[in-house]
Amino acid sequence: FFTHYTSRKGKELEQNSKAALLFYWDILHKQIRIEGEVLKLPIDEAEKYFKSRPVPSQIGSAASNQSCIIPNRDYLLEKAKELEKRFEEIGEVERPPFWGGYLFVPNLFEFWQGQSG
Q1: Domain extent for 65
Q2: For site-directed labelling of 98, which of 12, 45, 79, 106 has its Cα 20 to 30 A away?
Q3: Smallest Cα–Cα separation from 21: which of 13, 31, 12?
């Protein structure tokens, strides 16, 4: 998955790379819990994925400093406009250094089967 390294999630992963995923299907009375470690992807992989995204998504990611307080919505829109203008000038949106990817590496799978009633 890809996100801002400066987001709450990114900061927490910097402190503790252990994670768990839970998939719960109420109607089926089943769940799967997966534990593992989250590793930061190499920059070249983050760069490749960033470039594969639509330009508006690239601009949105670069303009937004996730989890940071901004003065107002206009501030964000102005940053996006600046990046759009820069894109028109240089022909690409540069991946911001605070944006990258992670890889979840599972090491434990737990399956649960419930029953109705």
Answers
A1: 2-112
A2: 106
A3: 31
Task: State the DSSP code for 56.
Answer: H
CB of 2 within 8 A of CB of 48? Answer: no
CATH number of the domain residue 15 falls in:
2.30.110.10
Contacts of residue 19, Cβ cutoff 8 Å, sequence gap at least 6: 13, 35, 36, 37, 38, 104
- pLDDT over 70, % of the chain: 99
In the prediction, which pLDDT does 116 show? 79
DSSP annotation of 66: T
Task: Note the pLDDT tens digit of each residue in 30-50.
Answer: 999 999 999 999 999 999 999
Give the residue ranges of DSSP H helices in 1-117. Answer: 8-15, 43-52, 55-63, 73-90
Residue 94, CA atoms < 13 Å, CB-side half-sphere: 9
Q: Is the dihedral of CA 24, 35, 7, 67 positive or negative?
A: positive
